[in-house]
Write a structure and sequence with these properties.
Rossmann fold; 2 domains; five-stranded parallel sheet; two-stranded antiparallel ribbon; 16 helices
Length: 449
């Protein structure tokens, strides 16, 4: 019996000795140098979310999350961001400044109350928002996070971009003269991330193709996408700094372009009285458009001719569609829906083609300049069917999917943490590093009232 007890104790000792321990993880930089890190990009890099730039959104930006992990493998000093001094945020809607979206109760034109995105402040004081957006923070720089909302690849070389884009103007030393590319050299960086090119396509998509153009592929830096991206990556790697370059996500799979299709069918104009039918038939008779009792396609403005036409099944509504106007004020029937609220089949084709071609160029440039490619296009497409992290389910669904913030374009803090981990995975593999990943559940998500 004594020998059996000794044998049992020995077996337990061996089992516990072989059990992996969480404190066995040893961070390592591998062959990379993370002493000083800068991030270049647009709103996705800046931490823009919920339709505005605001304090905590910036603190949860994916570069700031990544920087905290890089500190375990040699990053020194502070990762400086041009923090805006408002939690309500500052965004732009048309010619007005607005606050961020929050989830709260609102009542529609039918008197039905529901929970949805509303502005944190309904009618904000414009002078206050202007002061928050236009007050310079350049004296606090130089900054490690050079994420600028609305930035396109071609804007990086514009000498007066700070006067055109206040999000850059607020932290540029000389907004009227300093191009964005001048910011790169103000930090003696050893590692960089670059996630740029989204807005070269996205601005066209967000406008419904109305008044915007997709950046052409050919042309010199500042004009063409290929040369602009090449010049940017060449500059970033000039002194042999290592870095990671992300490509452009599948724009048409994000909630801004998918959510309304689940809510409002293209033939959602339901006519229940013959008088309605007769009135609309009389109004649209010169255009050859007819209506009948029951379901009818909405009336929209054609992108090419500018004339009203019936909505096609291949057209899509954007998240910006004013639904109250649709329900109660004749939008889509007596008043054609302006084209800026829809995308047609031709425009969708142009968007998808541009994303594909731009991503081929980004991949080629990353290979040419020995940078790590982070395939955000493939990664984010996986959320169409859904993925689980830390016991939390994520998908591309609006609000309930946890990944996208309340503007349907930018990411939640948890979404940014997922992106940071994607970067870490690729950096670790490329440089034989051992950067610890973040726990997704440590970060907040959409807050319900």
């Amino acid at each position: 019996m004594k020998y059996k007890s000794i044998l049992f104790i020995l077996i337990l000792a061996i089992l516990f000795a072989c059990e992996p321990k969480t404190d066995d993880f040893s961070p390592s930089k591998g062959s990379a140098d993370f002493t000083s890190y800068i991030a270049i990009g647009n709103s996705l890099t800046a931490g823009y979310a919920d339709g505005a730039l605001y304090t905590s959104g910036q603190k949860y930006s994916f570069p700031n999350i990544l920087a905290n992990q890089l500190k375990t493998v040699g990053m020194e000093g502070e990762f400086k961001q041009p923090i805006i001094n408002t939690e309500n945020g500052v965004g732009v809607s048309g010619s007005s400044l607005v606050t961020k979206f929050i989830l709260n109760y609102s009542t529609d034109c039918y008197g039905i109350t529901s929970v949805g995105p509303v502005r944190a402040v309904k009618d904000p004081d414009q002078a206050t928002l202007q002061a928050e957006l236009f007050t310079s923070v350049a004296s606090q720089g130089p900054f490690n996070n050079i994420g600028i909302p609305s930035l396109k690849s071609i804007h990086v070389f514009a000498p007066n971009y700070g006067t055109l884009n206040p999000y850059y103007g607020r932290f540029a030393e000389n907004p009227a003269a300093d191009p964005v590319i001048d910011e790169f050299g103000k930090i003696d960086y050893t590692f960089f991330t670059l996630w740029l090119g989204n807005n070269d396509v996205l601005s066209y998509a967000l406008a419904g193709g109305d008044g915007e153009v997709i950046t052409p592929m050919p042309g010199t830096p500042g004009i063409g996408f290929a040369a602009s991206m090449d010049a940017i990556i060449t500059d970033l790697t000039y002194f042999e700094a290592k870095g990671a370059v992300a490509n452009i996500p599948d724009i048409m799979s994000i909630p801004y372009f998918t959510f309304m299709q689940t809510q409002i069918p293209y033939n959602g104009l339901v006519l229940v009285r013959q008088g309605q039918v007769d009135s609309l038939n009389a109004a649209y008779q010169p255009l050859g458009i007819t209506f009948s009792l029951g379901q009818n396609p909405f009336i929209v403005t054609d992108a090419t001719s500018g004339y009203p036409r019936k909505m096609k099944e291949t057209d899509i509504f954007l998240l910006s569609l004013p639904t109250d106007s649709l329900k109660c004020f004749g939008f889509g029937s007596s008043i054609p829906i302006p084209h800026k609220y829809i995308l047609d089949e031709t425009e969708i084709g142009k968007i998808n083609t541009a994303v594909t071609e731009f991503n081929v160029k980004i991949k080629d440039l990353a290979l040419l300049h020995n940078a790590v490619l982070v395939d955000m296009n493939s990664y984010l497409d996986e959320f169409i069917t859904g993925m689980d992290f830390d016991g939390i389910h994520f998908s591309s669904k609006f609000i309930s999917g946890n990944l996208f913030s309340l503007d349907g374009i930018h990411l939640t803090p948890q979404g940014n943490a997922i992106v940071a981990n994607y970067f870490i995975d690729k950096i670790n593999a490329a440089y034989n590093a051992n950067i610890p990943k973040v726990s997704i559940s440590d970060y907040p998500n959409v807050q319900f009232p």
